[in-house]
Specification:
alpha/beta; 10 strands
Length: 364
């Protein structure tokens, strides 16, 4: 690679030193919103068709406070590429995403992670599905190793069985790289506790992943900050490995615990995946999540579907950081309507201390 590589501590070293690692995610929804990715198949064709935009998004997340450049290879696996008739570009899309991620990580002094994901074929109706999934994991992990990944992220597994396959593949093909493997907690409940859809209680599933060799285990996707935190209140005392918390940016509830189940609060109609805007989290939600995560001692944190740079900045700032994007953190004291800065003009000579906010916001 051309250019100077900035020094960077490894993932496990950071965690051992008690540091929090932020990993910004959510690329699928970012590019679908921007008109460069098709909702439904959700294949990251933008990597091939507009690589400059992907690189820019990598840079933007780092600017906002991400410690990791996660290569955009989520759903760039053989099954998904075949679905859209582009299986012949499988290696090209993976290596393009990985190499750009490595370049941005080197330029910014951040970590680069390879990414494998749920296959959507971990079902008995697919012949030899375990072997097929392992082959898919193998090729993506080997490409990540070849392109210089610092660790591997395996994510969004709603079955413990497929998550365990991901750990096995990372240990077998990852050439010793650390792996972060996370579960997507859906609606399944067993004995009053959240569980994977193949019937393993979440904390038990996390411990199984750790025992199989995962370096970091946890939850990603599916749940918003509030419902995910409810799971971690128990997990921090019951789980053996370092934990990862990477929620979606939608206001899930105990009634509707994952974003697939959410309904429009006005029409009561299902809203996944196209109409989730009406239940989007705000920056304060993210800030409060980051604060509570810090209190719980969870050291690997990120944001998944629905994320964008301003949320990542809010998360970083909730941890006491000032990433480059904090140069532009809101300063509403200077806002023409809401501010009280001395440079704002008074309303009139009789009320020199009164600012616009009192005239336009406060009731008479």
């Amino acid at each position: 690679m051309e250019g100077t590589k900035k020094p960077c501590k490894g993932l496990l070293e950071r965690l051992r030193d008690g540091e929090t690692v932020i990993c910004a995610e959510g690329y699928l929804f970012v590019f679908e919103r921007r008109g460069y990715l098709t909702a439904g198949s959700f294949v990251p064709e933008v990597v091939i068709e507009h690589p400059e935009l992907v690189r820019q998004q990598y840079e933007e997340f780092v600017h906002a406070g991400s410690d990791v450049v996660l290569a955009f290879t989520y759903y760039a696996h053989r099954e998904k590429m075949a679905l859209i008739g582009r299986e012949h570009e499988l290696e090209a899309i993976n290596k393009k995403a990985l190499r750009m991620a490595r370049e941005v990580a080197d330029e910014t002094g951040t970590l680069m992670a390879g990414n494998i994901s749920n296959s959507n074929i971990f079902v008995d109706t697919v012949p030899n599905y375990r072997e097929k999934i392992m082959d898919m994991f193998k090729e993506q992990i080997e490409w990540a190793v070849e392109c210089g990944a610092d660790f591997i992220v395996g994510e969004t597994y709603d079955t413990c069985g497929e998550a365990l396959l991901a750990v096995e593949a990372c240990k077998k093909f990852g050439k010793g790289l650390p792996c972060v493997v996370t579960i997507a907690c859906q609606k399944t409940v067993i004995n009053g506790k959240r569980a994977t859809i193949d019937g393993v209680e979440i904390c038990d599933a996390m411990n199984r992943l750790a025992e199989a060799g995962a370096d970091v285990v946890g939850l990603n996707c599916a749940m918003g900050p509030v419902t995910m935190l409810n799971v971690f209140e128990r997990a921090v005392t019951e789980c053996k490995a370092p934990l990862a918390a990477v929620p979606v940016l939608y206001r899930t509830t105990e009634e509707y615990p994952n974003f697939i189940s959410l309904k429009d609060p006005q029409t009561d109609k299902p809203i996944f995946p196209l109409d989730l805007d009406c239940v989007q989290c705000n920056r304060t939600d993210v800030h409060n999540f980051g604060k509570r995560i810090q209190e719980l001692g969870i050291k690997y944190v990120g944001l998944c579907c629905g994320n964008s740079a301003h949320y990542t900045r809010s998360l970083a700032e909730s941890l006491g950081r000032k990433p480059p994007a904090s140069r532009y953190t809101p300063d509403l004291n200077k806002h023409w309507l809401l501010g009280s800065d001395a440079s704002l003009p008074p309303l009139d000579n009789d009320h020199k201390e009164t600012k616009y906010s009192q005239k336009l916001v406060q009731p008479k």
